[in-house]
Amino acid sequence: VFSVHMVGEGSVSICSIAGKATSSPAENYLLARRRTLQVVVSALLTESGFESAEKAAVETLTEMLQSYITEIGRCAKAYCEHTARSVPTLSDTVVTLIEMGFNVDTLPIYAKRSQRMVITAPPVTNAPVTPKALSAGQKRTHPAHIPSHFPEFPDPHTYIKTPTFREPVSDYQVVREKAATQRRDVERALTRFIAKTGETQSLFKDDITTFPLIAARPSTIPYLSALLPSELELQALEETDSSEQDDQTDGENTDDPGADKENSMLPPSGVVPSTKASEDNVIDNPYLRPVKKPKVRRKK
Amino acid sequence: MSNEDLYHKVVGYVELTIFPTVVNLNRIKLNSKQCRIYRVRVNDLEAPFLYNDPTLEVCHHESKQRNLNYFSSAYTAAVSAVDPDAGHGELVIKVPSELWKQGDDLKVLKVYIEFSLDQPKGGLHFVVPDVEGSMAERGAHVFGSCDEKMKIFSCHRFWFPCVDSYSELCTWKLEFTVDASMVAVSCGDLVETIYTHDMRKKTFHYILPIPTAAPNISLAVGPFEILVDPYMHEVTHFCLPQLLPLLKHSMSFLHEIFEFYEEILTCRYPYSCFKTVFVDEAYVQVSSYASMSIFSTNLLHSAMIIDQTPQTRRCLAQALAQQFFGCFISRMSWADEWVLKGISGYIYGLYLKKTFGVNEYRHWIKQELDKIVEYELKMGGVLLHPTFSGGKEKDNPTPHLHFSIKHPHTLSWEYYKMFQCKAHLVMRLIENRISMEFMLQVFNKLLSLASTASSQKYQSHMWSQMLLSTHAFLKSISNVSGKDIGPLIKQWVDQSGVVKFFGSFAFNRKRNVLELEIRQDYTSSGTQKYVGPIKVTVQELDGSFNHMLQIEENSLKHDIPCHSKSRRNKKKKIPLMNGEEVDMDLSAMDADSPLLWIRIDPDMSILRKVEFEQADFMWQYQLRYERDVVAQEEAISALEKFPTPASRLALTDILEQEQCFYKVRMQACFCLAKIANAMVSTWQGPPAMKSLFTRMFCCKSCPNIVKTNNFINFQSYFLQKTMPVAMALLRDVQNLCPKDVLNFILDLIKYNDNRKNKFSDNYYRADLIEALTNSLTPAISINNEVRTVDNLNADVRLILEEITRFLNMEKLLPSFRNTITVSCLRAIRQLQKNGHIPSDPSLFKSYAQYGHFVDVRIAALEALVDYTRVERSSGELQWLLSMVQNDPVHYVRHKILGLLCKNPPFTKTTDSALCNEALVDQLWKFMNSGASHDWRLRCDAVNLYYMLFGLTRPSCLPLPELGLVLNLKEKKAVLNPTIKPELGVGAVMDTPASIGIHGVGMSYPDPVSLGVCGVGQPPQGLKRKADTPLGSPPEPGQILQQQDDDGRGFNTMEDEDIDMETVHDSQAFIHHHLNLLERPSTPGKHTHTHTHTHTHTHYIHVLKTLLIHGKEKLPFNRKKPAKPASGRGTHLPQLVGGEGD
Predict the structure, then answer these.
(1) Where is the composition biased (Acidic residues) (chain A) (predicted)?
(2) CATH architecture group of domain A26-112
(3) Is the ipTM above a cut-off of 0.85?
(4) Largest CB tally within 10 Å, which of A269, B132, B316, B818?
(5) Could you state, in order of their start, the residue ranges of all structural domains in chain A?
(6) pLDDT at residue number A238
(7) What residues of B are in contact with residue A176 (Cβ under 8 Å)?
(8) Can you give the C-alpha Rg of chain B in angstroms?
């Protein structure tokens, strides 16, 4: 039971179980690699002149090295897949290193440095066997017109339509029923929430929770909310309104040719009512005329 | 003063130009209320003045009288004392003696009055929402809150000194200085708008060249959004901020109304411009003034609203009709009011006929007729044209009423509404008589005379053509039509009451004659005897025949020969009145008689109530086959008494018939519910209307689910709304609402889906809640336990759940006019009343607060009034009464009193613990002095007092010990000195011109009021006055005079008062003197200085009125119209000329 659990935990637990008795080939394989990395780190430390290191420090450096190498691998694979290949090439790796900020030119010199330590090759362990993919159903054999050297068909479940949902209910009655229930539930939940979080009034003295009423709150301008349609309704209204308006403005232009002339003679000074400057051109209405500046008082 | 108060202030300046038409003009009387008058000058000379408003306090001394008869006569006397039509006024200005000479030469006098108005209680109404921001952002506005009735009530004296009469015409120049963010809308043409020098305010200059009476002048100031009518550029609409889209939609058809009136009257709209202003907290929905109308903002609606649309259009049509008759042409005297109301109501009716169709029009006429008949039979007659001979109370033409109809200010609101209703019905009767063509010719003639007169700038005596009197109207009718309508006028105009007919018939087979018997009841209250022609329509097998019968003194029976034989021709179609021929199933009818149905006065050409007896099958035939909606409606109400399967079938058929008028079908729903209840033990099949509703409005595949809403067909929309409401009235044998009906309604609510509808469903949902309310029946109470959630009936629980959800959702997504909240509040009250949930007023109190939408408040108040009556709660009654006194909205105050009258906590005939001395005193005080700023409210209070205590002394008061004796004594003692002025007045009356000379301003024709109001208890009056804290600011009614006047003016004032020796005045005299003494310590005097007031007024800075006055006010003599003044009036050419420049 214990081992199964360990496998499930994956690589995270590798460190913690290092040194313990291992039980599976995959585990062994990984541990061997890790141990090699530790040796490498130790060698590099020695090379740099350290005589001893705390275990925790070594572990940390190992971890860093491992993730660095992993990152190079992941990145190089990405580059290669980006160019529609499946195996990374040298150039992929080089680009990766450059991308990661590593000066590639220094690598040969570093590799040929004199004081480097030679470490033993990691012990040969069997690469872990990838478990067989779960096969479901019978694989199809090639039909006659496909040569046998072509790859086999994949498992049927990968291409056969397997419905996993029920047929949507299109029965009118049920739809209406559902919509009604849903709306009612939403409304009830919403009002209950508002009632719970705010002030309430109750119709019963003994029980204030069964039929909670949101408290009536006077508003400063009560007619606004009572008369104006809600935002949603207003949108629909504006759509119809604008089409009506167009008709009206057309009529205006032909309606009153005299007004235009009169209006243009007005002094342009003062404040023009901002809201409908465009319409004003054709309408002469005293309320739309600019407000005059006060005259300098004349002496009688 | 708090910051808020500063905003409720007006400082004004009035300039009147007077052309004396009499010599010895040394006093000028004007109307003014609640204004604080700083200074009066006549031709640059300081003039002393006296301010006395007897209506501030009607009965002066603390009498224990408390009976309504006494109050009414005192109140009438007080109103008469300041009646402008009789040449009286609150403000009496003494012309300085230096100018007497000038007056004798009939030279122009100019009167300048400076006044201010501080937090007015009536007349002008300020609405200032209590939110942050500038005044404009807050949507603050102010408007003349005078409505139609207030207008006849002439409330204009409430906001500026004037001659507050419809018969005093003059031209106007108006200037209003307001904050730069505001717009001042007033009568006449806006000439220009000019910034003040500091650029923070604007002055609006208006000129009204058409002679107009002061009550037709109004003003509205606010941060209005402006909309120029796209069809008529001279028409401008104003609404409060954010409402512009609604305004655009609501006004989009106004031009059609204009076109209609101009076409039928063949007369252009008389003013050069028209303005509509929509304000909040309006006094009434519609009020018209010269070239402008003020509406309630609640009339605005969006395109999604169905039910409000026709109502708004009606209001606009009413307002516009009054522009022609009421504003442009105004009444000669109060007694002629009916003509103007009648004509404007009549042409409004023509508009209804054209726009909404003949069915709607006839339905409306029937409704109005039923209303007036019901009112008159209940309350006594409504008199259109009262004549007051000699002004004596004895000659009161309407002794059955608890108020006087001598003045508009003393009328009950309800009575005035009925008065208008009757007026337009009588106009229709005249039309029936002389034909519509002649009728319109008369109107056209009146209008063209008036418009000719209005353009006569230099001849003000011509202006009397713009005033319409009963006499002139009748004369015009006889000139145009050549017909004598005297009897008609005598019957319906000079006389009150309606006719009550009872009809029955028998068919004489041998003679083939219909024996019709028509009896009348003319003895009970509100009825009168009718003698004259009456039309009877008989539908026989061979067709429909009209018969004109003559109703005479003693003949009851009328024989009408029948055309058809009773033998029926099989398969023959039956011709109807309109020429249509229909197949009928004649099996139901009496085999011996050819009569299908009979109608008495089918055209409603008599103001009557007909109770006619005919067999049930005849009513059913009438309902099915008579094409007149009025006949159908009559048949439906008659069928309520015949719960038979045949009636059921007839009603169901009508319900289904789509050609039938929708209001008839709606009425049929309710009748069907009643019949079903009466037939409950024999009823077959599903509950009434259920299968019908299912067929019409539910899905074909699943009949229990209603279709998603689509209200594009309005007829079926109204039917869909009404049917559930009527169905909910059904009861089973246990007298409960049938379970499947309740479930059906709950399903309608559940499945209601408005997502795809282009109209709002708020009214529909509100009606579904009403249906739930209707389904409620009284709870079975087990030994009076307290109502708790646990013992709630299962059905009621479902209902309550719906109501809770609806009410809560309304907080998040409010419906138009909060219709759903209104319905929910009614439902909750009904649940309380039926004992399902504990009776508790607190919820309603919170909804009745200021700050809720007015409809919601009224619904909550209605519930509270009901609670007060059912629970006999004095606490709630007090709460309501204090709201009547303190609420900021006039309409709400008026409505509370109206609701209390309709549903009184107790009446004069019932005993109640609520009826006690304190309540009597409270109401009395309110009527007496508390409501002096609002005529309507005062009359409402009088109504309530009448409803609660009757005309005589309330029974709950202790017997007046010696009070009565004392009073009698006082009366005698006081009578002697006061008789003199009364006689004096009587003598002077004949020569109206001399009134001005002697200045005997007030007459108290009623000896009772003389006695009681007399100097009976002067110490009390003194004491009361002395109680007034010296430091308190002066009340609006008090006098503030120019300070430098004091030394000299003091003495003259004393002299002045002596000839004003009326009983009220003696009291006022004392007040006045105390005021003068108090004045040094009164802080109010500081506000005299001009600069000071400037800093305080943010709204209307200066109201300057220049009146070019035709003549000096004279008591108008109705019998000799305008004669005394004509010819003598002169004009000031340079002024008029200047205007033309």
Answers:
(1) 238-257
(2) Orthogonal Bundle (1.10)
(3) no
(4) B818
(5) 26-112
(6) 55
(7) 699, 702, 705, 751, 753
(8) 32
